[in-house]
User: What shape does this take?
Amino acid sequence: MALTRKAGIRRRLRLPLALATMATMLAAGAAVLAPTTAAAAVPEKDWLHVQGNKVVDEAGNEVWLTGVNWFGFNASERVFHGLWSGNITTITKGMADRGINLVRVPISTQLLLEWKNGQTVAAPNVNTYANPELAGKNNLQIWDYWLQLCEQYGIKVMLDVHSAEADNSGHIHPVWWKGTITVEQFYQAWEWVTNRYKTNDTIVAMDIKNEPHGTPNSPPRAKWDNSTDQDNFKYACETAGKRILAINPNVLILCEGIEVYPRPGETWNSPNTDPDLSPNYFYNWWGGNLRGVRDYPINLGANQDQLMYSPHDYGPLVYEQPWFQGTFDKTSLTNDVWRPNWFYIHEDGIAPLLIGEWGGRLGQDARQDKWMTALRDLIVQYRLHQTFWVLNPNSGDTGGLLLDDWATWDTAKYNLLKPALWQHQGKFVSLDHQVRLGGATSTTGYNLADVYGGGGGGGDTIAPSAPGNPSVTGVTSSSVSLTWGAATDNVGVTAYEVYRAGTKVATVSGRTYTDTGLAASTAYQYTVRARDAAGNVSAASAAVTGTTSSGGGGGGSGCTATLVVTGSWQGGMQAEVTVKNTSTMTSAGWSVVLNIPSTLTIANLWNGNRTGNTVTNAPHNGSLAPSASTSFGFVANGTGTVTVTSCALAVP
Assistant: This one.
């Protein structure tokens, strides 16, 4: 059965919302996340910067951006939705009191250009009886008033160009230009808003463009490569980011992913045929495919320390992706979906991640609840930054944290989100150094000075749990490849230490490792320990033994083969095997031996030739320079899992 990977049309922002009965979920305990370090100086300004995969303040203290989206300024109303009945001050303080320290606000390029040209909406869709403080204000004045509220209550703001035009469904358009709005105007709109607020450290981040997407052969569409083509989003985000940072070098720049990315051996000109029958591209959610970062990372020059990447991810009630068809859990989602598409950016220390959109309805689909809990747990475990979709109850696909009256909070959904909001010693933490989250009189919030300036910081002395049992995923005559289950920590696991026979041989940020330079036909025993940012180290995992192969076979050893399941469903799976030349010679070919259980049948294989359990290179990918890699993929029908037995190179 063919399984599409297209995300489809999502989030009709302004459709009536039928109230649904929410099933009561198990209350998730509020995680107390202590700071990892303490610094003496308290900065006067709240600008944020990047260190590795962390975000820090100007004193180097780690911070955690945990928030929500509130849309409306991007739509035809050009003002926050909900002000037709809810009160702007009550809603804003309600977010702060509940631990939301960042609000991602969708806007449109059209709106920014209108404001730049002095055009405002004099009487926006606001109930002034419910909002007497907004009486007589146009939509730009309402925006500025709300920024003052955010400053008062310790909330920071991220701007998101959600669409080119001010349109309730503008996000459906795949690219950042449309009609009379050109790419240059897109850049100029960003420059105008940056210049207007360049001294206002309430706005700390700019999400360059929401969900660039589209598929090849269906222009316009967004691609990711090293070109300067108009449809290259990597170039567009880089260009917009540099032009913003030339005005304000302290604001964070967020680059989202796209929808598809070519598989190894394919190009952006490859046909976009059925991804299961002729899979030329990796598919993911709109904005969720950041595979291109590995090959073509964003370069912001001297301001690289302002870069974050921002994937989006959703559950089966938004779209029935292949990875939801069958059994899945946090581990399989991480290995099959999140890691290859974006989580590797965090694990490899490339840059911090902020999951700009995730969320959905609860109590309607057990798989939806499982997905949302799994992603929430990943966020908490690794302190990934996030803005939950969404505050608005009128999001057709997901519902909101607020119910239809724009006053009552959805308790079940908030309880699920709450552990993913920054907390310290039982209180929520602001990204502001002077203002507590919730305001000056807050009894539920801290500011950064409270946490890092003598207000109860203290060191992290709690070690992570032991990692899950390691397993051998592949061997050659000179290497053993390992994977293991995640450890947990009160703050967050930052690395894993791999031990061979009790001696540490590697420290890695992910949960895989290939030990090379080994002797043939030899057994090696491995354990793994987890480490957190404070240097606390866990107990050792259980031991596993890997035995190298005898060598020879394919004309030499010197390669590794790593298998990743890219999709699974009831009665089948899809996988990708990456072959890497670990020798010092260029190969003439390669071969990989698979362990294929009798319950599985290989139905389709690409970028290689299979004879029985052995896959050899295709004509175009047999020559691999030292450290180069290629990949092949396959679809298998039945039950069980294919694994790698060995890999060998043929050398001239």
Notes: Confidence is low (pLDDT under 50) at residues 1-40, 454-458, 552-556. The radius of gyration is 25 Å. Residues 198 and 292 are 31 Å apart (CA to CA).
